[in-house]
Amino acid sequence: MAVVIAVDAGTTGVRAFALGTDGVPKGYRYREFPQHFPAPGWVEHDPLEIWDAVRATLQELAAALDEPIAAVGITDQRETLVAWDRRSGAPLHRAIVWQDRRTAARCDELREAGHEPLVRARTGLVLDPYFTATKAEWLLTEGGLEPGPDTALGTVDSWILWNLTGGTDGGVFATEPSNASRTMLFDIGALEWSDELLELFGVPRHVLPEVLPSAGRFGVTAAGAGLPAGIPVSGIAGDQQAALFGQACLEPGMTKNTYGTGSFVLMNVGDRCPDPVEGLLTTVAWTTASGVRAYALEGAIFVTGAAIQWLRDGLGIIRDAAEISGLAATVPDSDGAVLVPAFTGLGSPWWDPYARGTFAGITRGTTRAHLARAVLDSIALQTRDVVVSMSEVSGHPVRELRADGGASASDLLLQIQADHLGVPVARPRVQETTALGAAFMAGLAEGVWTTTDDVTASWHLDARFEPSGDPAALEAEQARWSRALERARGWAAEG
User: Fold this and answer.
1) Between the CA of residue 230 and those of 67, 86, 389, 441, what are the distances in Å?
2) DSSP E strand stretches across 155-277
3) Max CA separation in the chain (angstroms)
4) 164 and 72 in contact (C-beta within 8 Å)?
5) 46, 36 in Cβ contact below 8 A?
6) CA-based R_g, the chain, Å
7) Which residues, listed in sequence order, are joined to residue 16 by a DSSP beta bridge?
8) How many CB atoms are closer than 10 A to CB 223?
9) Mean pLDDT, rounded, for 431-456
10) Would you say residue 490 has pLDDT above 60?
11) Are 81 and 136 within 8 A, CB to CB?
12) What was the pLDDT predicted at 4?
């Protein structure tokens, strides 16, 4: 039996993951890399440290495998910008990470100058330093980068692909639409770099990678890159789109939520690029070498698992994040207490940077268990707001939510979620859904799996949570949540 390997290059570390043709993991290796904070609000990575982690984890994993390797896929932290010289292989600057806020004022200037409608229309995004374009503009102006003939600007997937396929000795300089769609330089309808946006941000086309299908052959591994030479590199996707594929959300309306520090809800909306939607982002989910394309609506929730960490680290109510479910389960509900965890503002569908965290409905009878239950409720209710918004604008009712990420280990949370959505919530057996998606894409491109039906058959259920709550009580909770939201929104703007 052959295996497919996925390189999952996240924000804090790299995981190399092996998947069997039966959809069962065969092993993984993980290595962290340092974070660099050169100024307040600035976040950087050393591209060489990322590549060293990739090569080391691949070497260790390959040495532990008995099966032949059929293909390699890549998934990565999106929006992070890497600049390097293709002649020498040397980085030209530290990578500017998606979390970096150095271009916030520039985004404000562009918005005030009236450029956001163009950005929205071409990219499905909003003007925000989260995305790559203003990072590239900063490098080419404030950062002093001269765009020579061998200059390369790409997201992390392009850096890894280039090194994996030979680097200075014929490395492939390419990306694919799901990552390109997060740069704010890519026309998601035409599936090509936008001349209008390249001009707006002052980015020369020659420094950008070729855009190839997400599921298709990019090249083959080179000797010395951590794996045997000649293995096809055949699937690449940004982490959240890869998770959507890894959750086998392959039909319009299928939706997943990754419950991490924050949460990312993505809905497959099919092969037609939707118009920009207030409160949500539009992104390319994936494309294939056979011409299939899929788009997704995306909702970003800033604080979900971070609220559990706050209970632990800020309030000392729990000693370990895993304790929250047991504590919350000791009460039937929050007894009217409501938390809006807008610690850094609210994301989708509200996008209110001036919102602040609010606890409402507290009485003398409120206990630590009620607060724990209110935190779990807040995660489920924020997700419900996004899912309801997506269903309304897409015309695709959500019939099931597929859940992954650290907080999805909580049975109680997923039951609360099912109750508030009124649809089942399904948790897969394999939680590494980003790596799973990259592996599925690569294997599909190389015939390890023949059709997407084979991918669906390789997705294995761990647990399903059916809605069972009392409708009147749920409606009352949702009404209290809406009232608390009104009080949280705009708080910092009120002086």
Assistant:
1) 16, 21, 46, 18
2) 174-175, 186-187, 192-193, 210-211, 215-220, 232-238, 255-259, 263-270
3) 70
4) yes
5) yes
6) 22
7) 7, 29
8) 10
9) 91
10) yes
11) yes
12) 96
Contact 421, 401 (CB under 8 A): yes
- Please give the single-letter amino acid code of residue 462: D
49-76 tens-digit pLDDT:
999 999 999 999 999 998 899 999 999 9
Query: For residue 141, what are its two tokens?
Result: 């102006």
**Among 239, 327, 320, residue whose Cα is nearest residue 14:** 239
- DSSP result, 65-112: --SPEEEEEEEE-SS-EEEEETTT--EEEEEEPTT--TTHHHHHHHHH
Q: pLDDT at residue 495 above 60? A: no
Contact predicate 335/374, CB 8 Å:
no
Residue that has been written with the tokens 């209970």 in this structure: 311
Inter-residue contact 193 to 211 (CB < 8 Å): yes
Domains defined along the chain, listed by start: 3-247 (3.30.420.40)
Cα separation values, 152 from 104, 142, 159, 399, 401, Å: 24, 17, 9, 43, 39
Residue 53's closest CA among 76, 71, 37, 69? Answer: 76
b/e code 151-170 from CB counts within 10 Å (16+ = b): bbbbbbbbbbbbbbbbbeee
- Name the phi and psi angles at 372, rounded to 5: -60, -40
Condensed to tens digits (0 to 9), the pLDDT of residues 224-265 reads 889 999 999 999 999 999 999 999 999 999 999 999 888 899
Residues 308-334 pLDDT 10s? 888 888 888 888 888 899 999 999 999
Q: Reduced to 3 states, what is the DSSP secondary structure of residue 241?
A: helix
Strand pairing report for 3-9 and 13-20: antiparallel
| Pure H helices in 130-265 | 133-140, 156-164, 177-180, 195-201, 239-246
When mean pLDDT is compared across 52-56, 208-212, 284-288, 351-355, the lowest value belongs to 351-355
> Which amino acid appears at position 210 of this protein?
E
Q: Which tens digits make up the pLDDT trace of 262-279?
A: 889 999 999 998 888 888
**Phi and psi at residue 67, in whole multiples of 5°?**
-85, 155
Global pTM reads: 0.89
Length of the chain: 495
For the purposes of burial, counting CB atoms within 10 Å of the CB of 289, is it exposed (0-12), middle (13-18) or buried (19 or more)? Answer: middle
Contact between 109 and 40 under an 8 Å Cβ cutoff? The reply is no
The answer to whether 240 touches 433, Cβ cutoff 8 Å, is no
Number of CB atoms found within 10 A of residue 217's CB:
17
Give the model confidence (pLDDT) of 157-184 as tens digits: 999 999 999 999 999 999 999 999 999 9
Q: How many CB atoms lie within 10 A of CB 49?
A: 19
CA distance 200 to 31: 38
What does the DSSP 8-state code read for residue 362?
A: -
Neighbouring-strand partners of residue 236: 74
CA distance 77 to 55: 17
